[in-house]
């Protein structure tokens, strides 16, 4: 048995050869399923904006269904769905506004605060602020320990430039 191609969008597999794959990828069902997949990731504002440009589907509103489904060029948006999308948009806007306010509060450092932070030197570090390291018991009996395994001393912290991470 030869190789099989599995399409994640359609949940379908078939013999993998160029002709079969080309026919499948150009097929109506595949394109419809791919569109449904990507539409599930669209934001509510885009969905609502696209739907407002369409006219209402008479068949959908009269019978409750449409033969064309999501491929219909008319709108199938119900009032409940529209209200749900508007609510989601409003929540996203509130969240974004809250985030921008928090960012602005963080950015309102004065120039003096910034300069004070940048001008701090390591020489102002007190002995109490530097953690005290000691050699583990297992390494104490080993002669000529490499420098990378020796614990740092207070002097090592005094002679370094300040580094700001992040």
Automatic annotation (TrEMBL):
Q: Which organism is it from?
A: Potamilus streckersoni
> The organism sits in which domain of life?
Eukaryota
Localization: Nucleus
Q: Which Gene3D superfamilies match?
A: Classic Zinc Finger, Zinc finger, CCCH-type
Q: Sorted alphabetically, which InterPro entries does this protein's record hold?
A: Matrin/U1-like-C_Znf_C2H2, U1-CZ_Znf_C2H2, Znf_C2H2_sf, Znf_CCCH, Znf_CCCH_sf
Q: Which GO terms describe its molecular function?
A: nucleic acid binding; zinc ion binding
GO BP, one annotated term: mRNA processing
Q: Where is the C3H1-type domain?
A: 51-79
Residue ranges annotated as zinc fingers (C3H1-type) are: 51-79
Query: Pfam families from the xrefs?
Result: zf-CCCH (PF00642), zf-U1 (PF06220)
Residue ranges of coiled coil:
75-106
The protein, known as: Zinc finger matrin-type protein 5
Give the chief site where it resides: nucleus
Identify the keywords attached in UniProt to this record, alphabetized: Coiled coil, Metal-binding, mRNA processing, mRNA splicing, Nucleus, Spliceosome, Zinc, Zinc-finger
GO CC aspect terms? U12-type spliceosomal complex
């Amino acid at each position: 048995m030869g190789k099989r191609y599995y399409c994640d969008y359609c949940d379908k597999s078939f013999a993998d050869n160029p002709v079969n794959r080309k026919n499948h990828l150009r097929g109506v069902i595949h394109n419809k399923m791919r569109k449904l997949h990507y539409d599930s990731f669209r934001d509510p504002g885009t969905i609502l904006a696209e739907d407002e440009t369409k006219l209402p589907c008479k068949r959908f509103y009269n019978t409750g269904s449409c033969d064309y489904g999501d491929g219909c060029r008319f709108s199938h948006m119900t009032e409940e769905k529209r209200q749900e999308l508007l609510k989601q948009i409003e929540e996203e806007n509130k969240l974004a506004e809250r985030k921008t306010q928090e960012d602005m509060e963080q950015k309102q450092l004065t120039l003096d605060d910034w300069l004070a932070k940048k001008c701090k030197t390591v020489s102002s570090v007190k002995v109490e602020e530097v953690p005290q390291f000691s050699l583990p018991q297992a390494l104490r009996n080993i002669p000529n320990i490499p420098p990378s395994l020796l614990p740092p001393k207070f002097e090592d912290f005094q002679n370094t430039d300040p580094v700001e991470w992040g």
